[in-house]
Write a structure and sequence with these properties.
Structural class: alpha+beta
Oligomer: single chain
Strand content: 25-35%
Number of strands: 7
Number of helices: 4
Length: 140
């Protein structure tokens, strides 16, 4: 039981989890924004999320220039990984980007239905993890 090593935490984050991103609210009127999101990640790479640039999430990420993401395993033994860092790229997503993310989370048929209904693609924000926190409650 304790923190994961680098290989373990990157492998865990690469698994399919719904992540929760946390973003500072640049207006200062509210506390940090924390919302569930779909994401993609390959060990050693960047965390990518897709959302509308005009959404509260998109505006906050663009203004803050960084975000945190936390992924957890909700069944015993509990585990979580949190990564935080700067947004290193921002680009308009394509139908294929939306399809890939939706298929990851919904499977082929429902993923295609989701992508067809959300063909705009959104904006892809990619974050390079700089700081990590993790815990694995698996008994030693």
């Amino acid at each position: 039981m304790g923190p994961m090593n680098e290989t373990e935490r990157q492998a865990f984050l690469a698994e399919m989890h719904v992540g929760v991103i946390a973003i500072d609210d640049p207006s200062g009127d509210r506390g940090p924004l924390a919302v569930p999101v779909w994401y993609s990640y390959e060990p050693g790479g960047e965390v990518a999320v897709i959302m509308s640039a005009s959404s509260r999430k998109g505006r906050a990420i663009a203004a803050a220039g960084r975000f945190s993401i936390c992924a957890q395993q909700e069944a015993l033994p509990y585990k979580y990984v949190m990564a935080e860092g700067p947004v290193v790229s921002e680009r308009e997503g394509t139908y294929d980007d939306t399809l890939a993310m939706a298929t990851r989370y919904l499977g082929t048929e429902m993923g295609r239905q989701y992508a067809d209904a959300n063909a705009g693609g959104g904006t892809i924000y990619s974050m390079r993890p700089e700081r990590w926190f993790s815990t694995d409650y698996t008994p030693d």
